[in-house]
Design a protein that fits this description.
The structure is a single chain. The chain is an alpha/beta fold and 223 residues long. It is built from ten helices and ten strands. A six-stranded parallel beta sheet has the order 1-10-7-4-2-3. A four-stranded mixed beta sheet has the order 8-5-6-9, with helices on both faces. Strand 5 and strand 6 form a beta hairpin. Helix 7 packs antiparallel against helix 8. The two termini are 16 Å apart.
Length: 223
């Protein structure tokens, strides 16, 4: 089961004025299966995980020891225990995030952040999946979505089935009407300032076989 944190959706829904009945529903198994088939047609490998614990386990299996790893900011990754896992220092991975956080020089830190989107393995959540197979993610600066189109050697997405919606149009609406409202509420609590939708990515097709893996979790996660 997912780890509920201070910034999990359940604690922000009321303040964010988001509608979970519309945008955070668990789809039927046939809808999930249809969506997976469509994603696979688009060159995306899909691995099922029954819950967050198993999602983290699958993630560990995919990434080899010594690999260069970066992750985008993600409530989903927090809820599956990813941040807690890497904070223990036992992953065996070359964590670019650690290099960025310890760098005190602003110019060097900015350069490391730019390079991080070309990591061997970039891990991220997503904001919506259309039943037609497209995957959508947005953020303020682009640090989370910059790796998606081309930069990262391998892109690993961890997404709950609660983010599946009927069409690409619905996926984009989910970002504006649900995910953004929750992220904006989180940002104001965490940073004392509002968020903004600055950059959006639609992953519609991946031609490099094996580059993109989506771990689809059979529970509600993130925004």
């Amino acid at each position: 089961m997912a780890k509920i944190t201070e910034y999990s959706a359940i604690h922000l829904i009321s303040e964010a004025k988001a509608d979970p009945e519309k945008w955070n529903r668990i789809p039927t198994p046939d809808v999930v299966e249809k969506t997976v088939r469509e994603m696979e047609k688009r060159g995306i490998k899909v691995i099922f995980a029954p819950d967050g614990k198993e999602a983290l386990s699958e993630l560990k299996k995919i990434i080899p020891s010594g690999a260069e790893v970066m992750n985008g900011s993600s409530t989903t990754l927090i809820e599956i225990g990813y941040e807690e896992f890497i904070s223990e220092g036992k992953s065996g991975w070359n964590l670019m995030h650690n290099k960025i956080t310890v760098e005190n020089d602003d110019r060097k830190r900015a350069e490391l952040r730019r390079k991080s989107v070309t990591a061997d393995y970039f891990i991220s959540g997503a904001n919506a999946i259309a039943q037609t197979g497209e995957i959508v993610a947005c953020d303020a600066s682009g640090s989370r979505v910059g790796a998606w189109p081309f930069g990262a050697g391998h892109l690993i997405l961890v997404v709950g089935i609660n983010k599946i919606v009927p069409t690409l149009h619905d996926a984009l609406n989910r970002v504006w009407e649900y995910a953004y409202r929750l992220e904006n509420a989180r940002a104001q609590k965490a940073y004392g300032m509002p968020s903004v939708i600055g950059k959006c990515i639609i992953l519609a097709h991946e031609k490099n076989e094996g580059r993109v893996t989506l771990i689809l979790v059979k529970e509600a996660l993130g925004y």
